[in-house]
Fold each of these.
Amino acid sequence: MISLLWRTVAFAVILLQLHICIQVKSFPALLDRIALLPGQPPVVFQQYSGYVTVDDKRQKSLFYYFAEAEVDPASKPLVLWLNGGPGCSSLGVGAFSENGPFRPSGPFLVNNEYSWNREANMLYLETPIGVGFSYSTDSSSYDPVSDKITARDNLVFLENWFIKFPHYRNRSLFITGESYAGHYVPQLAELMLEFNMKEKLFNLKGIALGNPVLEFATDFNSRAEYFWSHGLISDTTYKIFTSACNYSRFVSEYYRGTVSPICSRVMSQVTKETSRFVDNYDVTLDVCISSVLSQSKVLAPQAIGETIDVCVEDETVNYLNRKDVQMALHARLVGGRRWAVCSNNSILDYKLLDVEIPTITIVGKLIKGGIPVLVYSGDQDSVIPLTGSRTLVDQLAKELGLKTIVPYRVWFAGQQVGGWTQVYGNILSFATIRGASHEAPFSQPERSLVLFKAFLGGQPLPETF
């Protein structure tokens, strides 16, 4: 009798193991499912995080965090979000400080009322390797990393991610991001179009770029006028900042390690007048004093709900360096390093001169290929000001022969002016987000969500309340 009982139990265990094995083979993403993040409030959507190998030989593994849509994820598009830098984390900045479902608050997470997973299945990727939890066991993989390497790795990531999540293969796919993602996103989208010519895999429906670097000189040199027009520098400094040494020249010299005496003097004067206690990423917002004093830099601002917590970046760093959080995320830190918002030079050696290669031409190529493009700008950002982006979009529209179908006009969100917009040929759009920083979804979450929803639906931004 006992023998029969044990045989029955053993058979049941075998069936259970077989069932689990079949499930994992059919849905390998089950291994990446997040049971519960420490301090997390209850939610109805599924979360996943883990690694996707992009180079078996060098064991290059990119870390992702995936939050399915709050309601009916099967009917919602897939959106890949990339932060810039180069070398900054889409997990820490995008997911936990901007448009993800949670914000860290001490030991807890609080709900983000304006999370973008209200409208889409949101996939956040820490790229390239050396950023956040992404890593390689081959140290030569970090030195140097270029735009081409990053784009290729990101493409392989998506290919392999679809193996984990096969039910998303044919889903409408959008790529969004900000800042240096003005390089990442168009270059990845271009590779996707080339890949689709051989094998139809990516159902790419559009890209959206926030305060993006698209053309080095235009974007960087618009900073001087922005500083002056917002009262951050004097008339005299504005003149030398546009004649003796403009910002693109200074950055170019700095990256080459050969800053000229004149550029050094000009930038010293600009820095003195703007003050390190003003956040260049949002010239109207207060700064996190502890971060300014300890790191000798102004941090990008962050927010929780409608109350802006300028020190939330510190909270994110503390949260993601907790062992219980890393365990829940299935994350690891290779080499004993700490998780950081942006990777430092000792870990990641990026080819910074790639910033000088224009990507606005790739944006034009995507439009010719039928891919809708939205360029949006937080209008309080002096790092990549709206004036440069607006100029580049308008020039591109003229080059492509696109007619204005929505004249420059105001748009609304929450019974207030959300910003201004212009649409060319129903495929290229420009929009500002009023009162927003470089990280627009952080500082103006409601307005950013309205913009995002319209972008996904291919709809014009609201013309009335």
Note: The radius of gyration is 23 Å.
Amino acid sequence: MNIQIIAIGKLKEKYLKQGIDEYLKRLSSYAKVDIIELPDEKAPEQISPQEMELIKNKEGERILAKIPTDAYVIALAIEGKMKSSEEFAHSIDKLATYGKSKIAFLIGGSLGLSKEVMKRADEALSFSKMTFPHQLMRLILLEQIYRAFRIMRGEPYHK
């Protein structure tokens, strides 16, 4: 299985990089995982709805340009469907069973994902009703992907 994480924003925090590297190493025996980091647009503290849309659209164009045409696309969005780890594992297993061996996970910038990106997504996934920093979401997503592979293979995982 080939998994891409297409994310807006540069990862700066050393502790997040270390965690991400650890999960990428753990995942290497299950799947090929690539992280594509795209530049974010600078957003002022006080921003109008029009400026917000403009920024999301610019970031969205960058994201859309990187999505493989044959990928199943999962957008991480607060308004997406919430799943348990077991349900998430079942979803990934089902995709693999039905020949969807390329999955692209999309993580937007601090303002979220554009409407065009959401239209391209095959599904929207939410990890919580809470808002998380987009850099931290990469680590959380990788941990859940790793957990999903452990669940799919009947291997022990921390509950």
Note: The chain has one domain: 2-152.
